[in-house]
Design brief:
By secondary structure, the protein is an alpha+beta fold. It has helices at 8-25, 104-121, and strands at residues 32-35, 40-42, 45-47, 52-55, 122-125, 135-137, 141-143, 150-153. The chain has a two-stranded antiparallel ribbon with strand order 1-4. Strands 2-3 form a two-stranded antiparallel sheet. Strand 2 (40-42) and strand 3 form a beta hairpin. It is elongated, with a radius of gyration of 19 Å. The two termini are 17 Å apart.
Length: 158
């Protein structure tokens, strides 16, 4: 591991699980535009071959068929033995199959490194009464304007 980052390797799973939960709840992947390859029925609607369809890849991220309690901040669902996000099509923050994002690996690495760096240099605190908050769409998923986080610098680790 890089000098100055002792224990980072063992800390990555502790960091990755909360990030997986946050990506499941607040996916940045919007709808994927496709055309129906053949006629089919979906929830009582007939879709003809060639019709434009929108596929929300993140719709399964909060689906109780895949996650025991999808809205609960429960990191165990991303750990052994449950690994609920490993079920086929349950968790696709970068899409999937032949259309998966080519930058998925780099995105994962950058996300982990950025959050690890922020947490190494900053202390973040959310008041207890702010732990339950409303999410809004403005125009994408955002936190309610009342949500507050206190940010303080950490003492130097030099």
């Amino acid at each position: 591991m890089a000098a100055g980052w002792p224990g980072l390797g063992s800390a990555l799973p502790l960091l990755q699980n909360p990030l997986e939960f946050l990506r499941a709840q607040y996916a940045e992947l919007g709808p994927v535009f496709r055309q129906a390859a053949h006629d089919f029925e979906f929830q009582g609607f007939h879709v003809e071959q060639g019709n434009d369809v929108l596929v929300f890849m993140s719709s399964t991220h909060t689906d109780a068929r895949y996650f025991v309690d999808p809205r609960r901040f429960e990191l165990e669902c991303f750990r052994e033995p449950r690994n609920e996000h490993r079920r086929k099509f349950a968790f696709a923050p970068y899409g999937g199959g032949p259309h998966i994002c080519l930058g998925a690996g780099m995105g994962e690495a950058r996300l982990l490194l950025t959050v690890a760096t922020l947490l190494r240099h900053l202390e973040l605190e959310c008041p207890a009464d702010q732990l339950a908050y409303g999410a809004i769409f403005d125009p994408s998923l955002s936190l309610d304007d009342r949500f507050e986080v206190a940010v303080r610098g950490r003492p130097s680790l030099a």
